[in-house]
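User: Okay, second chain of the day. Same drill as before: sequence in, structure tokens out.
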Amino acid sequence: MKKIIFLLVALLVTLHALPARSEMLPGTSEFIDEMVSKHHFDRDELLDVFAHAQHKPAVIEAISRPPKAKPWLQYRASFVNQQRVSYGLKFWQENRKTLKRAERQYGVPQEIIVALIGVETIYGRNMGSFSTLDALTTLAFDYPRRAAFFRDELENYLLLAREQQFDVRDMKSSYAGAIGIPQFMPSSYRNYALDFNGNSTVDLRNEAADAIGSVGNYLKGYGWVRHGLISVPAQVGDANSLGAIDAPRSMGDWLTADVTTGTRITPDEPARLLDYTVGEGKEFWLGFNNFEVITRYNNSDYYAMSVFQLAEVLKAARKPRLSPRRFVRSSGRVKIPQNNYLIKVKIHPSP
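Assistant: Same drill. Structure tokens below.
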């Protein structure tokens, strides 16, 4: 009798450990039909996959949460800080040959690639812990506001799994389905991810080289211009007389409006005026084509400027002779004073 009870308990424990079958969300059956007819997936396999896909209320809660409107300096301090600089310099040193190759091939400066990866995941330390399948299924069929977008990403995820030959239930990501060291959505993974170390696999979760090459390829694909301007500080004569500043204008037009820089720029170069003023600390920049390309990674001027400024700090610490004059170098450190914000970084000259 004791043996029977023990076996029953063991069976219950085993069943509890198995992934629970769940009722499929409305729209899933039609999606399966489309994947079968359009991409020749096996219907029974997809039925099994989605029978075990879990609806995650935490995903809906996370994506529905209004972003906190942080002041610029507080936002920047989240990314341009000692932790990311320290990890970034280590990442740069460990992957210096790969970064040089990516810069040669795609025209994207090494420091931009390093900074972007640092902002996204702190160099792979925070890639997300959500099941990619659960996250994308939840968003595709229970988030009407962006259902079409996430349905497309779910389609790309299933195709990616088939192409890369991994189990769709194994991948982890952010709550929005962004994958790996550079946080690529599945469509970007399929379109821009590369086998940059030549080992015949494309692995953005475990291979830093693949992440580096893929970021360079992504930015080039969205129009990055080799040696092109990113952003420069601007001095504004009378901000109240400028009118709307959202649209790009030529440098000639900006000069006419009394917006100047300390950099020689051709008059026909288009740029957008960026206002990072906090209280009495007036701060204006001009953003050029390559700045706009960074916003294609994340559609936020704060994000793009954080990537750019982290890149400049990293470059100042690794290549102090090439860093901008506004960085104060003394006693083996780089100081970046701006709007009462000061970060001190140890100089680690490149070998």
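Residues 231-287 form one domain.

User: Thanks, on to the next one.
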